[in-house]
């Protein structure tokens, strides 16, 4: 009898391990439902006055005095993750990726979700416009992260210092300002069909902010007056040069201006366009930059930009397991893995780039050459689909890493608002240290942060549903943003195999 039990367990384990490797012809996954939830998540991250149509109704108003210490209205925007700080560097990147999702895949979205995606973008761009409203100044963060991280309290209750971190010219802020310029330029393209007036405001502001970034070169975290507030959380680890090229590339896309074309041509080497080309995230824009610029080469035969396309090709080839240049690691269950915390940020950004590049190649009737292997757009999409399906539940644990999607998902995510009783159910203040009892609880979070994608499993596909393991259990806006575009594609094309 005992041997039979052991045999049954071995068979079950084998099936779980084989699940990700089975080809999925016509997935049972509901990409449209996941798309809806991935956008809804952003409502749970809102700071400021919440509107009447707020759907994540366990949240309340918060951060209503943000900016008062500098006589500026800095209400609004997003909390980046499970804390109550507004970090502009990742927020701007989130905005760029949400906008890019709409630009590339908005036509794949149901009209209601396209509207919701634009609302999510505008919640951030309205705030970003406030942060650059004064000449030669950029507000780069609101909230003292050290004090904030020493508390476990709802955003509606927070009583920690809402310190405003500011950079004035000629002090450097090329990274945050460059990313903000990119976000505003990309958002201008997203809004152009439905709100051309707002799009024009975004674009006009973007050009001014990019000039600030280019004139005052350097990393914002090198400013000693703000360094202790932005590091080590969203310190610039990879240099500011990529954000200058990234901002210029988005302004080129939005304006078709020859001045921005000249900028990305002439500054390619001096700003290190050939460095670290296999990374893409809030701190390193290289792979995304190369894919973005490649469109001009593929669509318009802009051969002066060929080096960017060559870098994009090289990056894509690293993702092909059969390629001689393959170097991306995959977990046993098939998940893209890169060292460091919050691994799903890599899986979602890379998936997005795979799908965008596949579209660019297909529209120009081209394929990708990886040494002796020819890679079609459909092959790139298959790799992307494998990542999406893994995140939504086709993985060794059978768990969806999107909260609220399917019947099995993380219940104890590292997120203050989700883990503490809602202000609607518990209107009394829960002070800084009083939240510890909820943090240490083994019970599921009382508020479901629908659509949140957690940091996720690592190289061994292991995931413990534990609030304390923030690298795995904390959601972030920049994990979700590129996934919106990926889900939009597969919602319209669910059966590619």
From TrEMBL:
Transmembrane segments: none annotated. Residues 31-487 form the Glycoside hydrolase family domain. Its EC number is 3.2.1.4. Residues 1-26 form the signal peptide. It comes from the Eukaryota. Keywords: Carbohydrate metabolism, Cellulose degradation, Glycosidase, Hydrolase, Polysaccharide degradation, Signal. The active site is at residues 414, 465, 474. Pfam families: Glyco_hydro_9. It catalyses: Endohydrolysis of (1->4)-beta-D-glucosidic linkages in cellulose, lichenin and cereal beta-D-glucans. InterPro entries: 6-hairpin_glycosidase_sf, 6hp_glycosidase-like_sf, Glyco_hydro_9, Glyco_hydro_9_Asp/Glu_AS, Glyco_hydro_9_His_AS. PROSITE patterns: GH9_2, GH9_3. Belongs to the glycosyl hydrolase 9 (cellulase E) family. PANTHER family: ENDO-1,4-BETA-GLUCANASE. This is Endoglucanase. It comes from Datura stramonium (Jimsonweed).
